[in-house]
Amino acid sequence: MPFLRTLLPQDLDQVVVLDHLGQSGGWTKSQYKPFIENNSPACAWVLVENTFIKGLLCAQILPFEAELQNLVIHHECRRKGYAQLLLDKFIKCCLERSVLSIFLEVRAQNEPAIQLYSKIGFTRNGERKNYYTDGQNALLMQYILPPYPQGSG
Ligand SMILES: CC(C)(COP(=O)(O)OP(=O)(O)OC[C@H]1O[C@@H](n2cnc3c(N)ncnc32)[C@H](O)[C@@H]1OP(=O)(O)O)[C@@H](O)C(=O)NCCC(=O)NCCS
After folding, report:
1. pLDDT, greater one: 119 or 148
2. Which residue owns the Cα nearest ligand 1 atom 33?
3. Average pLDDT, integer, range 142-151
4. Which of 37, 65, 111, 117 is catalytic?
5. Which of these is catalytic: 67, 82, 96, 105?
């Protein structure tokens, strides 16, 4: 069974490979460093299966809003609900920190990701023309969180 945990320094080599396999223009090791520092708004979780990292989610969580910055699942493990597991964890963390809205940018032609975010409850709220270096447009999507119930632990 896969399990979720926060990103650790010893994960960085695996995570960089996973990210580059998953999408063009993956991040470098140094770009992940803020995500393993304590007391930073940068948060990251990995999904581990049989000691291997199969999924990664990185985000910035500020007092009232959050931004999903990176989400990738190993190509052999797709359509098993792993991205949804990571997004559920992220959204729960946002709720606990009283975040009101989550924002993200996604390539306008990235149909799997757009389907995923729509299923979770993200809605489109804008588009940036020629946003990526290859000329593709970015869709802007937003998820509005319900108020966190008082007294919830
Ligand atoms: C997009 C991505 C993260 C989805 O990960 P995943 O673990 O396969 O997604 P899940 O299994 O949790 O899918 C949940 C839902 O998303 C949608 N979905 C996911 N992949 C899909 C696809 N290829 N086609 C259509 N819908 C898809 C479906 O609604 C799916 O629910 P269902 O399986 O019950 O139909 C994965 O394809 C990936 O890593 N892609 C490369 C990196 C990337 O594009 N990241 C997003 C950057 S913004």
Report:
1. 119
2. 79
3. 82
4. 117
5. 105
Domain range list for the chain = 3-144
Token pair, residue 10, equals 């010893």
* pLDDT for residue 25: 72
Minimum CA distance residue for ligand 1 atom 36: 73
Span from the CA of 5 to the centroid of ligand 1 (angstroms): 20
Whether 105 is a known active-site residue: answer: yes
pLDDT in tens, 84-119: 999 999 999 999 999 999 999 999 999 999 999 999
Q: Which CATH class name applies to 3-144?
A: alpha beta
- Residue 62 phi/psi, 5-degree rounding, is -100, 175
132: tokens are 């990526």
- pTM of the complete model beyond 0.90: yes
Sheet holding 65-73, edge to edge: 3-6, 42-49, 52-61, 65-73, 101-107, 138-144, 123-128
Is 117 an active-site residue?
A: yes
